[in-house]
């Protein structure tokens, strides 16, 4: 991949400002903080008490294209305009760390709806310009914060389902795991964070960062139609952020600390940059989602700080498909991963079609992960379910009677064998446009992946898809 292409890879980040001007200054600090999580490059090598660099982002040498999307003069602008602008100026992935909060909403299961905003985001991911040829661009979105306040820091929205635009199907929705920045007394590092200026109602869970396996209190989960959202989680509690405005400040370093899914989402955007650098090609939105989901680590057995309960096996609405992890994807040896982006496959044009590919398992002593993802047609507002075009992944055993299908998992986090009692009668996922199959270690040495176009729904464009495989080629 040419170095110049890496230098112009950008991420757009909304700056939460109430100012009407269009200058580049971030009056609120939120956009700067979000950008820093992806791209922060500390001026000095200052470590916190746990040995982490203050303000260090995942991809610090990457360029950024900033869009200031909040303010009275900009509120009528839609995601279609932002995506078009970002793509035109060279962005390869776009992050949005903002959500549609309901002011002073009571506690309860509300929200999680597929709104007009979500519909626009689905359309923009599929095609930023809305014409031919398609110009897709990955978009990462924060899941939203439970009891997160509005822009004026009034009492927060304590519903728990994800908030639009995170309810969109084609975006990569990111919830918050805890970071690892445990507080021990006395520890002056975090005393400035005990009370956030202007928002004294922060919940105690905001200050917990004891294990990467825990899901943060603030992390929203679930949709009205039962889809798996968030797609993944990433560390978002007591995050070190690159701003000195409005957040709790560490006076010794000048860096701030805060908690929220806003700081988890840009890490997934940065992951796109790192995977692009590693592989030398820019991935489609479907390929990015398949790769990040396929590389994610389960946090089963950790603590859900919102309920206090133990996190169940993935995939589920608490952890999605797991926590962001790139160790295997960026490894230089000893790991086999296969990326089959949309150009690898002949697109679907109607229901009843199927595509197949044979795989060999690299190491039969380890599980094998297969992930199918596709950018779906936007659904109608408040649709339930929201899936328009249903693709299904299937792997048959050699007897032709039993097999695995997408998202049908056991508590051991391997795929449940289908067709045991009734030969060939399987259960399929009809809600999600991301499907995972995990083949248990030793179950087979090779297999054929079949992908079926089960339901066409509507729309005139063809249907493309991407497949990621770990431990298979």
Q: Quick recap of the structure?
A:
This protein is an alpha+beta fold and 473 residues long.
Blueprint (SSEs and pairs):
Elements: H1 3-8, H2 30-39, H3 79-88, E1 94-96, H4 116-126, E2 139-142, E3 172-177, E4 232-235, E5 239-241, E6 248-249, E7 256-258, H5 265-279, H6 285-295, E8 337-340, E9 354-360, E10 368-373, E11 390-396, E12 403-405, E13 434-439, E14 446-455, E15 466-470
Parallel strand pairs: 1-2, 2-3, 3-4
Antiparallel strand pairs: 5-7, 6-7, 8-15, 9-14, 10-13, 10-15, 11-12, 11-14
Can you walk me through this structure?
The protein is an alpha+beta fold and 473 residues long. Helices cover 13% and strands 15% of the residues. The chain is globular. It has two domains: 1-330, Peptidase S8/S53 domain (Rossmann fold, 3-Layer(aba) Sandwich), CATH 3.40.50; 337-470, Jelly Rolls (Sandwich). The chain starts with a helix and ends with a strand. Helix 2 (30-39) packs parallel to helix 5 and helix 3 (79-88) packs parallel to helix 4 (116-126). The strands form four sheets. The protein has a four-stranded parallel beta sheet. The chain has a four-stranded antiparallel beta sheet with strand order 8-15-10-13, covered by helices on one side. The chain has a four-stranded antiparallel beta sheet with strand order 9-14-11-12, with no helix packed on it. Strand 6 (248-249) and strand 7 form a beta hairpin.
